[in-house]
Amino acid sequence: MMNFWTKLQALDRRWIYLVVWLVVMVPLIFPFKIRPVATPPVQSLFNYIDTMPENKALIISIDYAPASQAELQPMLIALLRHAFAVHRKVGVLSIEVQGLGIGEDALRQVAAEFNSHARTNADSVLNGRDYVYWGWTTPYITVMLGMGQRIARVFPVDYYGQKTESLPIMKHLKNYDDAGILVSVAASAYPLSWINLAQTQFGIHLGCGCTAVSAADYYPYVNSGQFSGMLSGMKGAAEYEELLERRMAQTGMDWGLRRKGTEAMSSQAAAHLAIIAFIIIGNIAFFITRRRKS
Amino acid sequence: MRRRIPLILVLVTGIFGAVAFFIPHHSIQAADESMRNDVQRIIAAFSLVLGVGSILAHHFTKIQRRTANWQYSWVTVVTLFVSAVIGLFGGIDPARPGILPTHIGSFSFHMQTLYMNMMVPLAATMFSLLAFFMASAAYRAFRARNFSATLLLAAAFVLMLGAVPLGRMIFHPLPSFAEWILAVPNTAAKRGINFGIQLGILATSLKILLGIERGWLGGG
Amino acid sequence: MNISTDPWVWIAAILTLAIFSFLYRENPFYRIAEHLYVGLGNGYAITFYWHRILVPSLIDPVGHNPSIVMKVWLIAIAIIGALYFTRFIPRISWLVRIPIAIALGYYSGATIPRAVDAEIIKQLRATIITRGQLAHWDAALWAIIILVGVIVTISYFFFSAERKGALKPLSYAGIIFIMVGFGASFGYTVMARISLFIGRLQFLLGDWLGIIK
C-alpha cells in the first residue's frame, strides 16, 4: 500500500498531461448546456456600454498578443457585436504590435456578421463610417496621452493606410471627449497605464477585459470605480456573451452567433474539477508517505 | 561625459515630462505634444534595432561557433528575413498590395495570412503548454503543509468552483461567495500590496531621474 | 467530421501539433516551430515599425513637409534614434545611452505625478469609509473589512520593527488576507491557463477536423 502512494507521488507527468488533454477535449465534443450568470463587474460594463449616449463612441484598445487570444478574442468580438447592435460608433486601436492582425480579423468577422443580416445601407457596418481601425503606434505613452488631445495626430493613417482625418467617423471622434468609454482588452498591465495616463489627465471612463491571471489584481480598481466594469478571462467573455444574446434578442437579432466563450465553459468546469482532484490526491499521497516515514 | 550627458538628459526630460502635467499653457502643451509624437515615437521606432539586432547577433554567433542546435538558428534567421521582405514589400492589407506579389493563384502568402495561420497558432500553442505544466505543478508541489497554505488552497478551490457555472449546481451560493472573496478580502490584500509596489516604483523613478539609480547606464 | 481542405488550416494545425509534441518529449519539430515563431514575430514587427511609424512619422514628413525647420528637426531626432545602432560598435557603444535617457527620463517624469494620483490618492480615497457606505449594513461591513485588510496587509510588510506587541497580531491577520488574495489569484490563474488550451482545442477540433461546430 505504501508502495502505491509512493509510486503515485512519482507518477510520470505525461500521464497528468494526458488526463488534462482528455478532460478538456471530451466536454468540447460532448458539451453540457450551460447558461453563465453575469457577475457584478461584467454587468456593470455591459450596462455602461448599453446606456451610453448615442453621440458617444466606444473605443477598444487591443492590448494583447496572439498568446492570449483564446481568452481575450471572445471578449473583443462580444464588445464589437454589442457596440454595433446598439448603433454606437467604434474606434479600435492596438498598443501591442502583435495584436494588430487579430484585431483586424475580429473587425472583419463581426462586420461580416452584421452586413450579412443588413437590409439597408443604414443597417450595415462600414469601415470609416461606423468604425475605424486606427492600428498601432508606439510608444504607448504617446497613444494614451495624445488621444486625449487629437486622435488624428496620434494616428495620421489608419491600419489600412487611409488618412485618418479623411474618414467620416473622425468628424465625431476627435479625442476622448467624444468617447463614452474606453475598454482595454489586455493580457498585461496596460489597463493600469490607461488609468494612470489617460484617466488621470482626461477623466475618460475605462473598462477592462483582462486575462484571469490579472483579474484578481484589478479588483481594487473596480472597487474604487476607476474601472467602470471588468471582464475576467474566458468566463467573463461567456457572461458577456449571455447578456449580449439576450439584449440582441430583444431587438430581433436572434442570429445564433457563435459564442466561443460559452462553448468553453463545459471544458473549463471539467478541468477545474480535475485540477482540484490532482491537488487532493497529491496531498493525500504526500501526507500518507510522510506519516509512514516518521 | 559618457555618463554625465545621459544623466543630464534623463533629468531634463524627466522634469519636462512632470512639468507638462501641471502647466496647461498652450506652449508647454504644444512642446509636450511634439515630444510625444515626434521625439518619442521616432526614437521608439529605432529601438527595434536593439531587439532585432540582438537576436540576429545571438543566432549568427551560434551558427559561426557551431554550438548545440546551431542548425535551428538558420530557421530563425531565414524566417525573419523572408517575413520582413514579404511585409515590407508586399504591404500590410491584402486589399492594398505592395510591389511584391503575395499570392500564387489562390494561395496567398501575404503577411496577414502568415500571421493568422502561423504566428497566431504558434504563439497561442506555446502559451497553452502552461496548462499542462500548471496541472503537473499542482499535483507535485502544491502541499497544504501549514495553515497559510491550507487557507490559500481553500480560497483557490472556492474560486475554481465558483468561477464556472458548475459551482452553482454544486452549491447555489458558491459563485456569490467566490465573487465576495474577490471583491472584499482579495481587494484588501491586493490594494495593500499595491501601495507598497507603487511607492517603490515612485522611489525608483525619482532615483533614476536624480541620477542616484544608474543601473540603466550599463558598464563603461 | 468535416476535415478542412484549406492548406493554411493544415499548416496551422501541423504547427500546433509540433508545439504540443513537446509535452511528450523535446524533438526537432518542436524546435523548428519554436524558431519559426521567433523569426516571424520579428519580421512582423519590422513590417509595422516601417509602414506605420517610420514612413508616416519620419520619411513622408521629411519628404513632403515644406517647412525646412520641421525637416531639420525630424532628421535630428532620427539621428538620435539611429544612435541605437552604436550598441553594436564597442568603441562608441556608450552613445546608446542618449536615446535611452530621453525615453526613460520622459516616461519616468510623466508617470510620477499621474501614478501618485491614480495609484495612491484614488486608491486611498476608495479605502476610506464614507457616509454613503454606512447606509447599508453589508456595504458598511465589507468596507470595514477592506479598510482593516489594507492596514493589516501593509503591516505584514513592515520589517523595520520587531514583530511583538500590537504588530504581531496585525501581521498575522495580514497573512490571512494575503493568503486569501493569493489563493484567489491561483484559482484564476488555473482558469486562465486552461482557457488557453481550450482555445487551441477549439481550433483543432473545430476549424481543422470539423468535429465541433
Structure overview:
The complex is a heterotrimer of chains A (about 290), B (about 220) and C (about 210). Chain A folds into 2 domains: about 1-30 and about 270-294; about 40-260, Rossmann fold. Chain A contains 12 helices and 6 strands. Chain A has helices at about 1-10, 15-30, 40-50, 70-85, 100-115, 140-145, 150-155, 190-200, 210-225, 235-250, 260-265, 265-294, and strands at about 55-65, 90-95, 130-135, 180-185, 205-210, 230. A 6-stranded parallel β-sheet of chain A has the order 3-2-1-4-5-6, with helices on both faces. The relative contact order of chain A is 0.18. Chain B is mostly helical. Chain B has helices at about 5-20, 25-65, 70-90, 110-140, 145-165, 165-170, 175-210, and strands at about 105, 105-110. A two-stranded antiparallel sheet of chain B has the order 1-2. In chain B, a hairpin with a 2-residue loop joins strand 1 (about 105) and strand 2. The relative contact order of chain C is 0.08. Chains B and C meet through helix 1, helix 2, helix 3, helix 4 and helix 5 of B and helix 1, helix 2, helix 3, helix 4 and helix 5 of C.
Number of helices of chain B: 7
Compute the gyration radius of chain C: what is it? 28 Å
What's the Cα radius of gyration of chain B?
A: 26 Å
**Helix content bin of chain B:** over 70%
Euclidean distance between termini CA atoms of chain C = 10 Å
**Quick one: overall form of chain B?**
extended
Summarize the structure.
Chain A is of the alpha/beta class.
Please describe the topology of this protein.
The complex is a heterotrimer of chains A (294), B (220) and C (213).
Chain A: H1 2-9, H2 13-29, H3 40-50, E1 57-63, H4 69-85, E2 90-94, H5 100-117, E3 131-136, H6 140-146, H7 151-154, E4 179-186, H8 190-202, E5 206-210, H9 212-223, E6 230-232, H10 233-250, H11 260-263, H12 265-293
Parallel strand pairs in A: 1-2, 1-4, 2-3, 4-5, 5-6
Chain B: H1 4-22, H2 26-65, H3 71-90, E1 103-104, E2 107-108, H4 111-141, H5 147-163, H6 166-170, H7 174-209
Antiparallel strand pairs in B: 1-2
Helix pairs in contact in B: 2-3, 5-7
Chain C: H1 7-20, H2 28-64, H3 68-82, H4 97-127, H5 137-156, H6 167-208
Helix pairs in contact in C: 1-2, 1-6, 2-3, 5-6
